[in-house]
Specification:
Helices cover about 35% and strands about 15% of the residues. With about 625 residues, the protein is of the alpha/beta class. It folds into 2 domains: about 190 residues, FAD/NAD(P)-binding domain; about 325 residues, FAD/NAD(P)-binding domain (3-Layer(bba) Sandwich), CATH 3.50.50.60. Strands 1, 2, 3, 4, 5, 16 and 17 form a 7-stranded mixed beta sheet that branches. A 5-stranded parallel beta sheet has the order 6-15-7-8-11, with helices on one face. The chain has a 3-stranded antiparallel beta sheet with strand order 12-13-14, with no helix packed on it. A hairpin with a 4-residue loop joins strand 3 and strand 4. Helix 17 packs parallel to helix 20. The chain is globular and about 80 Å long. The relative contact order is 0.14.
């Protein structure tokens, strides 16, 4: 990036940020319940429903969710020797968000070589630095095939209820297919990006044209594929609501294809340089075994200050090095470091805004596209075509100045009293986040020991050990959730892989010891919660200064329970916490129950025999 002088007055810039924030605080930020006529936004347009008989059967482990998080857990359990693993997912195939997201232009925004899990184990090398959605989906399917996870999978199936059976020390699950299943262990890998979100715009059901959410892309209407431009839109006027990471990717191909495209913007995103390109085959062939774990760990360490060399060297590591992990911050006082980080933020945001000035030809459009907030207020985006799309004569930015679309009519969308006539309205509005309760998001409640409901246990926020286990719910794990007492990284699969390894290790160890169940003690749960509170950075002032978004509960910071945060020292430190917990060997914080007469677990002979009898 070309260096740009920062504004002369940071105070003036702060006032501008707050002014832009306040505009968006005043807008309608409610969301719709997808019921009744809105149920169509949840339907699967990709895989026809296949009738089947209800199943009554027992499994060693049931994993609810077959996205990358669930697949990594399944792979880890297979490596530990577990044979009876059942995946359950409402989608027509594995892949999670990469099954659902098939819009044109869809790619990961983290380098493929660190984002895609288990590349070496599966024997796959990405062609592109940022892989397309279809490539990632096929890789997910390859993981399922490699580890035989399709064998007992129940797809097109949604769990409707779950309860702990004390007398049997296992879980009973019911599904919308009439299945009644039991399992020794259950892992909730439902994912944080799995339920489409629709804004509560008045008249949303009145529109008579075509409409869909980007996670249910209607290729039959648009033509084309996720890897090519739409082919059926030459005579269509398209409206896109939303300007997050999805819109940034799908607007350029829409602009190249449709008669007209109207992009309805509440808040402009940051658009960093992506520098996309192919993976060099000769370089890839030179990599030594273990390269991916090394590269993935290096990426996370580079983000948070623990890497001497940056192997990935992309927009993410540049951003975090400037704002978070530059070694110079460690030599400063806290106030000096805060001031230095603020100056770095201003300089980087000025470069972002200058890029818009340099790229977008129409000055009014360019000004409307400029983001006025601190860089990390919203998840950054990186793209090399989005800004150029607004130079096309048929692509029009409709800046709502933070208010959002006023209403939807039978024939279009209204902003500031002006109606924009549309043939098709596309919601690029993302997924439900933590603004709704966990059990509401997954669509069912969980009944644990002594009738305790998970909705009651977590009514005031998460209570866990390491974000993956909770007292009162034996033999159960949860894949990581943002702000869920675990950790979250730019490279989501890294955290999910670390958690998957932890879960597989615990299950194998519980079985090896001959226990019928394990459960987190309330003391361990409370100790972990105190750790989260003690180590959490005090970023409330920063969040309150930010434009509304998922990171600050759409601007209402007080809605987040104090302990609903992640491990303060960051992902690398959290991963070391998990490793140290395993190395301890005593399963600290867990209570194991054994069959009657075997309170000490297995005999030495049984232990030496290994896992086979209990697992199989």
């Amino acid at each position: 990036m070309t260096p740009v002088d920062p504004p002369k007055s940071p105070d003036e810039l702060h006032r501008k940020y707050l002014e832009e924030r306040d505009k968006r605080l005043a807008g309608n930020r409610e969301k719709l319940d997808l019921i009744g006529d809105l149920q169509k936004y949840l339907d699967d347009p990709y895989t026809p429903a296949v009738p089947r008989q209800a199943i009554t059967e027992h499994s060693e482990v049931i994993i609810v969710g077959a996205g990358l998080g669930g697949l990594m857990i399944g792979a880890g359990l297979r490596k530990a020797g577990v044979k009876r693993i059942r995946l359950i997912d409402s989608a027509g195939d594995v892949g999670g968000v990469w099954y659902w997201n098939r819009y044109p232009g869809v790619r990961c925004d983290t380098e493929s070589l660190v984002y895609l899990p288990l590349l070496e184990e599966v024997g796959v090398m990405p062609h592109d630095r940022y892989s397309t959605g279809p490539f990632i989906w096929e890789h997910a399917r390859s993981i399922a095939r490699k580890f035989n996870l399709y064998d007992d999978a129940l797809l097109q199936t949604a769990v409707t209820g779950m309860e702990w059976l004390e007398a049997d020390s296992h879980w009973r699950l019911r599904t919308d297919r009439g299945d009644e299943l039991t399992a020794h262990f259950v892992i909730m890998a439902n994912g944080s990006l799995q339920k489409p979100r629709l804004p509560a715009i008045p008249g949303v059901t009145d529109f008579k044209g075509h409409t869909f959410h980007t996670s249910r892309w209607d290729t039959a209407y648009t033509g084309g594929t996720a890897e090519s431009d739409p082919t059926n839109l030459a005579d269509k006027v398209i409206g896109v609501i939303g300007t997050g990471a999805t819109a940034v990717q799908c607007v350029p191909p829409l602009g190249r294809s449709a008669k007209d495209v109207y992009v309805f913007q509440r808040t402009p995103p940051t658009i960093g340089v992506r520098n996309h390109g192919p993976v060099d085959p000769a370089w890839a062939a030179s990599l030594k075994p273990g390269w991916q774990n090394e590269r993935r760990a290096n990426f996370t360490e580079a983000l948070y200050g623990g890497a001497q060399v940056d192997l990935v060297n992309d927009g993410w590591t540049e951003l975090f090095r400037a704002l978070v992990s530059d070694p110079k911050y460690a030599t400063m006082t806290p106030s000096e470091a805060a001031e230095a980080r603020e100056r770095a933020d201003i300089e980087m945001m000025e470069r972002i805004r200058q890029r818009i000035t340099d790229t977008v030809k129409d000055p009014e459009t360019a000004e409307a596209l400029k983001p006025w907030y601190a860089y990390l207020c919203k998840r950054p985006t990186f793209h090399d075509e989005y800004l150029d799309a607004f130079n096309l004569p048929n692509v029009h930015l409709v800046d709502t100045q933070g208010a959002g679309v006023e209403k939807i009519t039978a024939s279009g969308a209204v902003v500031n009293g002006k109606e924009y006539k549309l043939d098709c309205l596309i919601f690029a509005t993302g997924f439900e986040g933590l603004e709704i309760a966990y059990t509401e998001k997954i669509g069912f409640d969980v009944v644990g020991r002594n009738g305790l409901r998970l909705s009651e246990k977590w009514a005031d926020g998460f209570h866990t050990l390491h974000g993956i286990m909770t007292a009162g719910f034996p033999n159960m794990f949860f894949q990581s959730m943002p702000n869920g007492q675990n950790t979250i990284t730019i490279n989501f699969p890294d955290a999910m892989q670390q958690n998957a390894s932890q879960m597989a290790w615990i299950i194998a160890e519980v079985i090896r010891r001959g226990a019928k169940s394990f459960e987190v003690t309330r003391e361990a749960e409370q100790d972990w919660e105190r750790t989260i509170l003690e180590l959490a950075p005090d970023n409330r002032a920063f969040l309150e200064s930010c434009t509304p978004g998922r990171g600050n509960n759409d601007g209402v910071v007080d809605k987040r329970p104090p302990a609903n945060r992640d491990y303060g020292p960051g992902p690398p430190a959290f991963f070391r916490v998990l490793a140290a917990w395993r190395e301890d060997g005593s399963l600290p914080g867990l209570h194991l129950e054994y069959p009657e007469g075997r309170e000490q677990g297995r005999t030495p002979a049984e232990t030496a025999a290994g896992l086979s009898s209990s697992l199989h």
